[in-house]
Amino acid sequence: MPVAIITGASKGLGRALAEALAARGWDLVLDARTPEVLKDTAAALEAYGTRVAALPGDVTDPWHRTGLVTEAGRLGGVDLLVSNASALGAEPLVRLAELPLDGLRRALEVNVVAALGLVREALPALRAAPAGAVLTISSDAAAEAYETWGGYGASKAALDQLAAVLGVEEPGLRVWAVDPGDMATDLYAAAVPDDDGPRPAPAGVVPALLRLLEERPASGRYSAPALLEARS
Q: Which InterPro entries does the entry mention (predicted)?
């Protein structure tokens, strides 16, 4: 069975993707910072008959990243690496003039440095996989100038560039950066707590991600809404 590592997998888009892969027979290595929530998620996914290794921890910890890849090796390798764990840099978001530099450093460490660190750990297994792929979750804030989203957007723009270069340097892999579009997630609620407008559930984005896995288009940056529209 193929094996996926998914960071930030206890809820939101990470959990929704994990559930879809479990239903399709994938084995999973899951990461999140809250042990209790991650444990509940793993138990729910095991009901599909899949093997699940759930490792609570912080992706900025190199030993934790090594542990994720080691667990994947025990399950058979790494076919898919999903960098979904994210940090905002400030909660709620603030203008750049007020953005704590430590917050920006945290966003860069989680969203960029840790993502690259995990790729480096997993590269030998990804290269050995029949169809190795890396999926990074981006944001429209990486490409658009939204007030208060500067620090987070800058970190996601950096992640996009890393993914683009990785796709060139590793032609045997597929490397996709995906802007998931608007979603109702805890991350968005923490970013803009006063915005209580209705937003789509993360599960609605998953068919776009599955399309990438099924059709394996060229490495590059994709928009989930565009992938969904093209399929309809």
A: NAD(P)-bd_dom_sf, Sc_DH/Rdtase_CS, SDR_fam
